[in-house]
Amino acid sequence: MSQAHRPGARGRAGKGAQRGGRLPAQLAAARELLAAVLRFDAPADAVVSRYFRAHAQLGQRDRHVLAETVYQVVRQLRLWRHLAEGAPAPLDLCLLALGWQGDENLVSEGLRGWRAQMRARELDALPSALRYSLPDWLAHSLDADGFESLAASLLQPAPLDLRVNTLLASREEVQRQLRAAGIDAAPTPLSPWGLRVQGKPALQRLAVFTDGLVEVQDEGSQLLALLLAPRRGEMVADFCAGAGGKTLALGALMRNSGRLYAFDTAAHRLDKLRPRLARSGLSNVYPVVIAHERDERVRRLEGKLDRVLVDAPCSGTGTLRRNPDLKWRLQPDDIARLVEQQGAIVRAAARLLKPGGKLVYATCSLLRAENQQVVDSFVADSPAFERLDAGVTMAQQHLALPLPRPMLELRPDRDGTDGFFAAVLQRRTDG
Question: Does 94 qualify as catalytic in the annotation?
Answer without folding.
Answer: no
